Amino acid sequence: MNQSSRSTQAAEAAFFGALPNPLNAFSPNPGSKQIKAGETLWSAQNPKSLVWGPLDDVVMGGASESFLKGTTWKGTIVTEGGGFAGIRTQPIKPAFDVSSCAGLKVRVKGGDGQRFKLIIRDSYDWNGIAWSYEFDTQTLLPSMDGIVEASAPFTEFVPTLFARRVPNRHFDKFQLTAIQITLSKFGYDGALNPNFKAGSFELEVVSIETY
């Protein structure tokens, strides 16, 4: 890994606080905030003040990179030594209590027909269970202006650790602690993403809301 890659990895770790902090064991539980169906969690207005950062494969020695500007996420995926890019919110504190909701609805534009993952978490463990829902985008002609809407029921999110399924787990709807969007060459359990293309990509994340 060159100096630039090490610097990027360190910056991402610092952004997310990935390194264990022994003082966290004594931190009070931040509790939760009730969220009702139909509330917008993310949009250009950012009503919940979410803070996003890149979570690309450089953290595992890869060379992919991405960034979010406004609501537009773009980057480049290099499959050699890695093969994924992502954006993830800083830990949501207090957590969102979405127990009265059925799921999340994500509205995106672009994506060039690729398959992305909407990921949520229900703990503050950095490498804890990642609950994943796959959705496909559309390849749009220059004259088209379409938005894809995907409804993701909480019951259909797949519990994973490093993209491998974890059996007998149930998402804790009382504690949504992070939101993430990922584009990866992999699906689950080592299988390849059938709707994936290496190279540059661009996805406008128009909104994420509960339903």
Offer a quick outline of the entry.
The protein is mostly beta strands.
Structure description:
The chain has one helix spanning 3-16, and strands spanning 32-34, 40-42, 52-54, 65-69, 72-77, 84-89, 95-97, 103-110, 115-121, 130-136, 148-153, 158-161, 164-165, 178-184, 199-210. By secondary structure, it is mostly beta strands. It has one domain: Jelly Rolls (Sandwich). The chain has a seven-stranded antiparallel β-sheet with strand order 3-6-14-9-10-12-13, covered by helices on one side. A hairpin with a 2-residue loop joins β4 (65-69) and β5 (72-77). The longest helix has 14 residues, at 3-16. It is globular and about 40 Å long. 31% of the residues are buried.
Secondary structure blueprint with pairings:
Layout: H1 3-16, E1 32-34, E2 40-42, E3 52-54, E4 65-69, E5 72-77, E6 84-89, E7 95-97, E8 103-110, E9 115-121, E10 130-136, E11 148-153, E12 158-161, E13 164-165, E14 178-184, E15 199-210
Parallel strand pairs: 1-7
Antiparallel strand pairs: 2-15, 3-6, 4-5, 5-15, 6-14, 8-11, 8-15, 9-10, 9-14, 10-12, 12-13
